[in-house]
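Researcher: Following up on the earlier apo prediction. This time include the ligand. It's S-adenosylmethionine, with the SMILES given after the sequence.
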Amino acid sequence: MLESEPPLVVESDDDDTVCLGESFFLNDSYELATFTFGSHVLQLLCLQSASTDFDLTGQLVWPGARLLNEYLANNSELLQGYSTAIELGSGVGVTGILCSRFLREVVLTDHNDEVLKILKKNIELHESSENPSSCVALSAEKLEWGNSDQLNNILQKHPEGFDLVLGADIYILQISVPPLFDTVKQLLCQQGKERCRFILAYVSRSKMMDAMVIKEAIGHGLQIHEVDGSRRAISNLEGVIYDITLQL
Ligand SMILES: C[S@@+](CC[C@H](N)C(=O)[O-])C[C@H]1O[C@@H](n2cnc3c(N)ncnc32)[C@H](O)[C@@H]1O
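Model: Understood. Below is the ligand-bound prediction.
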């Protein structure tokens, strides 16, 4: 292990200790991949498969992002009348970056510092490949769900607030569901943004999580509707897009 790198994982047996540094698990051999959603083609850096023990799920593009991006690319009228969005759990950024083709400003967020590095690189890559006159503001910010200080910092930098909240395949751990809805609720309650909605691409992997997402949304005073025609098979799983708003 490098001297400058503190041991991150210490596995103890009775008479043995193994110290492994973070870099032991980290795979950052990203490859440029091309994604096509309707008539939109995006090139992004990502991994093709998960390969670590750390919370680096965001290094690859998930089925929920494909579901949401294909839906939005083919039904872009859904985004008409909206100009700003914040994405939660952006990973490599494929959803927020696609949405920047339809909106004026998109803020992509994630809590993982390694994921934020590749997210920022993908934003640069996208900006360098787009027509400079399209002038959409794209940025990346650190945001841990449930962390109001981080969210308030973002809202201070963007005092006009956000018209849309986006999320693709962000329900993996049950423990993250309540703080995620805390953040969503705070965003839906922004002053002057009564029309703000949370567009969530949900991929079903456990019945318990299916029920928990709906229960937590309702428990947070939100209404949750399935977007007509959005339910479909994706990567041998069932996906659906939910439209989530404050209860009237
Ligand atoms: C399964 S990946 C989905 C990534 C991307 N949306 C996609 O569909 O390709 C979940 C993402 O949420 C992020 N994430 C997980 N827990 C989080 C939390 N508590 N706060 C903020 N982001 C989180 C992860 O770092 C990861 O990028």
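Model: Residues 113-129 form the longest helix (17 residues).
Researcher: Noted. I'll compare it with the apo version next.
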